[in-house]
UniProtKB/TrEMBL annotation:
Keywords: Hydrolase. It comes from the Bacteria. GO terms for molecular function: fatty acyl-CoA hydrolase activity. This is Acyl-CoA thioester hydrolase. It comes from Pseudidiomarina indica. InterPro entries: 4-hydroxybenzoyl-CoA_TE, HotDog_dom_sf, Tol-Pal_acyl-CoA_thioesterase, YbgC/YbaW. The keyword Hydrolase applies.
Length: 138
């Protein structure tokens, strides 16, 4: 399985009163890495969203192992563990640039179709153009 890596620097706004990365911000780091992974494959989410198709996170398991601090340089990884017709399961890590694993996560994302008004959302199979690119990438 291929590993995609995305660099992130911890900004002051990412930290809490104790000077460490606030736990919810790890979710943002993970999301950015998945977005950049898709972009690296030529999948621009805004183009698909204009057609009413997108990905939503359905489930996250997050394990915070060590703290990151202001100005740390981190690497966020993305590995596709399972690619289904309508969903994907990722294993992701946030590591310090020196190698220490700070956070591990398993994320399940589903492909959805948004209704015209945006009020309705239903799970759908991925469009073939997306699915085929993802299959080739793994």
């Amino acid at each position: 399985m291929l590993t995609f890596e995305w660099p992130v620097r911890v900004y002051y706004e990412d930290t809490d009163a104790g000077g460490i990365v606030y736990y919810a911000n790890y979710l943002k780091f993970l999301e950015r890495a998945r977005t950049e992974w898709l972009r690296s494959l030529g999948i621009e989410q805004d183009a698909w969203l204009a057609q009413g198709v997108g990905f939503v996170v359905r489930q996250v398991q997050l394990d915070l192992l060590q703290p990151a601090r202001f100005n740390d340089e981190l690497i966020v990884t993305v590995v596709v563990e399972r690619l289904g017709k309508a969903s994907m399961v990722f294993t992701q890590q946030v590591r310090h640039r020196h190698g220490a694993i700070l956070c591990q996560a398993q994320v399940k994302a589903a492909c959805v179709q948004f209704g015209q008004s945006g009020a309705s959302v239903k799970a759908v199979p991925m469009p073939p153009a997306i699915f085929e690119v993802l299959q080739r990438a793994n």
